[in-house]
């Protein structure tokens, strides 16, 4: 029974509604609408919409019938009359005149598995501001011998979503499989970074590229990166034979401060992950040993044989 429950939970975790817009930027008085796709997996026709402000919990606004556009209110949201359905690719949630108090993230949701579970979209954040949308500048660096670093900076608004692709020789580009490689993300004011920890596939080296989804559009790094081949025996150094002027020029090449900063953070993050994994492993062993040492409980001896 426990196994079935775990499997069911994993299936529910994998299911998700699709909200393509990470952010939507509007000025006061403008109109905005929030889309929600993937509703075909819902068991019922009702799509619920929630509002989430920075310092508050989720609040249910209303529901929209995905077939007829009928809305159901009465959940006590103070702004429920500011929202209405609008026909787009499906029935979308609309605010006809944006107010400053509408600044929040909006999530769509529906029920699956016979009304047992709710699944959500990833959310769309409404930014009410006079600032112009600015696309990010995306750079790709080899961070270490088995990792790549993709940095997005100078973007407005700051929310982005990273994606990685790989390509072998002149073959087609494909998404990096999540099963074999790990992805970590770092965020700080003004920039965000994605670190791809790679395991070199057996069928040859790949060239990797990263792109960033942003409200201003998708931006791809101008360069591609490839993991260095395993080091062979190095030939004797010729540095001593180089002219002194060439050596001095090579020593004066500046180091990219952004790359150096993220390399330090990458090392700290990797060490933290290793320490956490070690602690979890030790705790698991201690728990198993404790349960084994306890032996049968008193209740087991009281049962008739």
UniProtKB/TrEMBL annotation:
Q: Which organism is it from?
A: Channa striata
Subcellular localization(s) per the UniProt record: Membrane
Question: Keywords in UniProt for this one?
Answer: Immunoglobulin domain, Membrane, Receptor, Signal, Transmembrane, Transmembrane helix
* Leader sequence segment: 1-15
PROSITE patterns of this UniProt entry?
A: IG_LIKE
What is the name listed in the Swiss-Prot or TrEMBL entry for this protein?
Ig-like domain-containing protein
User: InterPro entries given for it?
Assistant: Ig-like_dom, Ig-like_dom_sf, Ig-like_fold, Ig_sub, Ig_V-set, TRG_var/const_region
Residue ranges crossing the lipid bilayer per the database entry: none
SUPFAM superfamilies linked: Immunoglobulin
| CDD domains, sorted | IgV
- Give yes or no: UniProt keyword Membrane: yes
CC per GO annotation: membrane
